[in-house]
Amino acid sequence: MDYRDYLARLRAHSGDATLFEYATVHEAGRDYPLVCLTTPGRRELVLTAGFHGEEPAGPLTLLEHFPEVAAFARSRDVALRVFPCINPSGFEAGHRYNASGEQPNNDFLRYEVTPGVFAEEVHVGQPFHAWHPHEATPKETRALHHELARHPPPRGALDLHQDAWVKAECFYAYHFGDPAPYRELVKQSLAHAKVAIHLAVHNLLRTDRFGLIVHHDGSNSDWFHRRGVPHVAVLETTTRTPLARCHAINLTWIRGLVELVAAS
């Protein structure tokens, strides 16, 4: 989909939301506006999608279903801050990275594992000296980081991704904190696809028997967790999963995070 068409449809479907451009990036001879939608409420949930251009389900869920997402959040008095398509040139081309070949993956922090020694990620339970915001990132990631950092930490954050390597129709999720509410969201999502249990997904990490993983990878979700955000998850549907089923799973988790934020 041409990103200009995506933006035109998004503006038409944004309803009562405030849509604004928080930055513009220049790729392949074009300017790409980076946009955010906000809605009012007592406590805030941040939704992000489209870090990787070959993972279209998240941006399309937020495009096609934004009115119902906003209405559900409004009914629970939850504010939304939505970044629907973080890597527009990659999304437009269906490529993982941006048109410059940069990797606007969600690289938000570095761990100082011992004084002066830095790492991109740490294992669960691994001690470390400190963590620091990371600025040497592609322009899309840097712009998002700056925009998010202007605001107080929200009560919840959900990042919508897809897995292009798993050759099955399924889903799994990363999370922080108490796993119980995420196990319930897994259960609710089983009507739409299988959950990937005991699946090797990243550097020999495996999902547990509920299809969940805890991973401190320096991502935007890890950054939210380190800033004290109580409800943080990353949802992964596979690109083999039909888009309608991806939408249904994404919406299940969006509603679930709205409920968690409302009750917190």
Write structural notes for this entry.
Strands 1, 2, 3, 4, 8, 9, 10, 13 and 14 form a nine-stranded mixed beta sheet that branches. Strands 6-5-7 form a three-stranded antiparallel beta sheet, covered by helices on one side. A two-stranded antiparallel sheet has the order 11-12. The relative contact order is 0.17. Helix 1 runs parallel beside helix 2 (57-75) and helix 5 (180-189) runs antiparallel to helix 7. The termini are far apart. Helix 2 links the parallel strand 3 and strand 4 (78-83). With 264 residues, the protein is an alpha/beta fold. It has a single domain (3-263), classed as 3-Layer(aba) Sandwich (Aminopeptidase). The chain is built from seven helices and 14 strands.
Structural class: alpha/beta
* H and E string: HEEEHEHEEEHEEHEEEEHEH
Strand content: 25-35%
Report the CATH topology name: Aminopeptidase
Count every helix, treating DSSP H or I runs of 4 or more residues as helices.
7
What is the average of the pLDDT values? Answer: 95
Number of strands: 14
CATH homologous superfamily? Zn peptidases
Total domains: 1
Major β-sheet profile: 9 strands, mixed
Residue runs with pLDDT of under 50 for 5 or more positions:
none
| Distance between the amino and carboxyl termini | 38 Å
CATH architect. name: 3-Layer(aba) Sandwich
Please state the CA-atom Rg, rounded to the nearest Å: 17 Å
* Helix content, binned percent: 25-40%
Assign the CATH class: Alpha Beta
Gross morphology is: globular
